[in-house]
């Protein structure tokens, strides 16, 4: 089973992914690293620390980059709530991150343990890009990198064609996707098709009755309001949890396409678009494993087991 480093901008769906990883009987989380995205860095770090404590885990949380490589930070607080966790009044402050910078921890852990670490990225790719810039050999020593990001069908959430994690820091995404690191991309299309939890299912999951079950459902309050109003989804979707689930159990990726993925780093309409070069028109880009569909039943089973 994989040994994970999870890089997260700890919003309400990230937190569910952290619970799934920390509670999985045979996954090991060596470190959690935080990055600005859904919320500013300090909130992402506090939210991750809160979630680790709620799971009774001792996993270290290291803070990383407070902003994208080149662009100003635009958060997703209008989606996930000002605190990123549904604004339901959780005591999300006052915890202390582990000493050390996320980028150094990613480099040191992966180079000390070549071939052992799976990176799972749940937010903008700023920390991973910086690690690759500082230590290009990282691309050769990482077992694999599973990215929640992009949209293989061109249907975006933050813009007509771009998904938030890539749109937030497209330069970082281009560095990561062009690095040659063994990369699996689970885009928003996978979440929208195979990881939407409707109100009835949310009630059933919450009825498991554990503190973790109530936490994982209640913190989706702001997301549910936003999605209902802006996307017409019948419930909330869980993009980070399904990407995490694929990292732990690759069989959940039921349909994949191995293809180069190019990132639009312009400032125009297509900023942050993930373009699949199916025809191989541009030969110098490495191939990425793009997940197109997921085994929803297998994913829900892992989620339910984590909440019990
Ligand atoms: O577009 C969805 C992604 O953006 C998820 O990772 C969500 O947490 C936000 O970071
Ligand atoms: Ca996220």
Number of domains: 1
Strand percentage lies at: 15-25%
Question: What value does the average pLDDT take?
Answer: 97
The SS-based structural class is alpha/beta
CATH superfamily: Ribonucleoside hydrolase-like
Using the coordinates shown, work out and report the CATH topology: Inosine-uridine Nucleoside N-ribohydrolase, Chain A
CATH class: Alpha Beta
Tally of alpha and pi helices: 14
Gyration radius from CA atoms, angstroms: 17 Å
Tell me about the biggest sheet? Answer: 9 strands, mixed
Strand order in space, largest sheet:
3-2-1-4-5-6-11-9-10
CATH architecture: Alpha-Beta Complex
Q: What is the global morphology?
A: globular
Helix content percent band: 25-40%
Number of strands: 11
TL;DR?
With 308 residues, the chain is α/β, with parallel strands linked by helices.
Helices and strands in order:
Layout: E1 3-8, H1 12-23, E2 28-34, H2 41-54, E3 61-63, H3 77-80, H4 102-112, E4 117-121, H5 126-134, H6 138-141, E5 144-148, H7 164-168, H8 170-177, E6 183-186, H9 188-194, E7 196-197, H10 199-206, H11 211-218, H12 221-230, E8 236-237, H13 239-248, E9 253-263, E10 274-276, E11 287-294, H14 296-307
Parallel strand pairs: 1-2, 1-4, 2-3, 4-5, 5-6, 6-11
Antiparallel strand pairs: 7-8, 9-10, 9-11
Helix pairs in contact: 1-2, 1-13, 1-14, 4-5, 5-8, 9-13, 10-11
Alpha-D-ribofuranose (RIB) is lined by residues 9, 11, 13-14, 37-38, 76, 122-123, 148, 157, 163-165, 188, 239-240.
